[in-house]
Write a sequence for this structure.
């Protein structure tokens, strides 16, 4: 496995500034906005992780000593041993500060925060996928100082109060007698250095707020609540630290015609009573274009016609769901005299006898009711 130094292409005795420059150069080449390749994305993550470790003096010291790729000491010296409620680490941190006062100054360079934004898409876009352009207000590396936090031609100077250690010590009395405690230096805030001439644009933060544009590829099959992770597209960290990740949460708008149920689409189609009785062919506008639906003669209200493979694309896997058309037979109302007469004639031809405007109960009616009850 390549070392963090090999990943960044620097020597083991490289200075912090050399490490930062190497990271900037690689990040500009491998960033997903510039290089969309899958291999470039993996290398960008490796470069960012290497920089997070080597840019932090304490993590770098642990990495050089133990080889732990995360720069954390998991051995006896840096871990905590708990036995019957006793933790050595708690005692050290209580009386001597974190790491027994030997941790060194804190690094100004830190990873930026992750960010979450919500994006709305239409149901059609959820079916087929879409490339969505976004405008994001976030923290970016200061273009004036390039993350150094200092005015051009200047650099941080060693703190006079703590002598560059980032810690100050004082004697206190305790149950163990007089002991020395350490705490972050109030003058340099634990960094060990002070920025005498901060950059005017970022006020010594190494980053500024800015609006930038990016395009996110929304895959087919997403639904409301789906989150897409964009590595390294979140906020830039303080002092030019690596950016966090951006999470895009999808919200799918309701459609005027179709309702989604899993990967199936459902639509309701009203047809005249005469069309249901005689049969017909109806043209339906779907996301895949016009589709001809064959309505057989004698269709009843509530029947479903299934169009295979015209639903939502499966998010994980191949193929698509189905489109299910629910038929609703419309009974005509407000008939004129001629229409009423024609319907009465039809009823007589079918043996459906009316008495004083009422349908005479027949065995056929009760048979249908019996059939329905028998299926319950």
């Amino acid at each position: 496995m390549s070392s963090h130094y090999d990943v960044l292409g620097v020597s083991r005795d490289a200075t912090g500034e050399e490490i930062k420059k190497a990271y900037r150069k690689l990040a500009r080449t491998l960033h997903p906005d510039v290089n969309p390749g899958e291999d470039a994305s993996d290398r960008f993550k490796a470069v960012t992780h290497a920089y997070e470790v080597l840019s932090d003096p304490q993590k770098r010291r642990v990495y050089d000593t133990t080889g732990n790729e995360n720069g954390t000491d998991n051995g006896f010296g840096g871990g905590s041993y708990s036995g019957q409620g006793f933790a050595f680490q708690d005692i050290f941190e209580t009386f001597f500060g974190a790491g027994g006062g030997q941790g060194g100054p804190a690094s100004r360079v830190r990873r930026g925060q992750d960010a979450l934004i919500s994006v709305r898409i239409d149901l059609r876009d959820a079916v087929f996928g879409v490339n969505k352009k976004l405008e994001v207000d976030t923290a970016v590396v200061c273009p004036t100082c390039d993350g150094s936090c200092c005015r051009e031609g200047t650099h941080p100077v060693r703190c006079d109060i703590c002598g560059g250690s980032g810690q100050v010590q004082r004697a206190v009395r305790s149950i163990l007698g007089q002991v020395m405690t350490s705490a972050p230096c109030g003058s340099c805030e634990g960094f060990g250095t002070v920025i005498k001439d901060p950059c005017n644009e970022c006020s010594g933060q190494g980053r500024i707020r800015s609006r930038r544009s990016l395009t996110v590829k929304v895959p087919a099959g997403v639904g409301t609540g789906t989150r897409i992770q964009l590595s390294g597209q979140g906020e830039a960290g303080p002092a030019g630290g690596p950016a966090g990740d951006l999470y895009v949460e999808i919200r799918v708008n309701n459609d005027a015609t179709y309702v989604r149920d899993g990967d199936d689409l459902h639509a309701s189609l009203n047809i005249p009573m005469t069309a249901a009785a005689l049969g017909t062919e109806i043209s339906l506008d779907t996301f895949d274009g016009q589709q001809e639906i064959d309505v057989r003669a004698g269709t009843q209200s509530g029947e479903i016609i299934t169009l295979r493979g015209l639903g939502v694309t499966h998010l994980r896997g191949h193929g698509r769901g189905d489109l299910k058309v629910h038929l609703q037979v419309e009974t005509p109302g407000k008939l004129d005299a001629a229409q009423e007469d024609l319907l009465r004639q039809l009823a007589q031809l079918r043996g459906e006898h009316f008495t004083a405007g009422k349908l005479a109960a027949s065995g056929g009616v009760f048979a249908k009711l019996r059939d329905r009850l028998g299926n319950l």
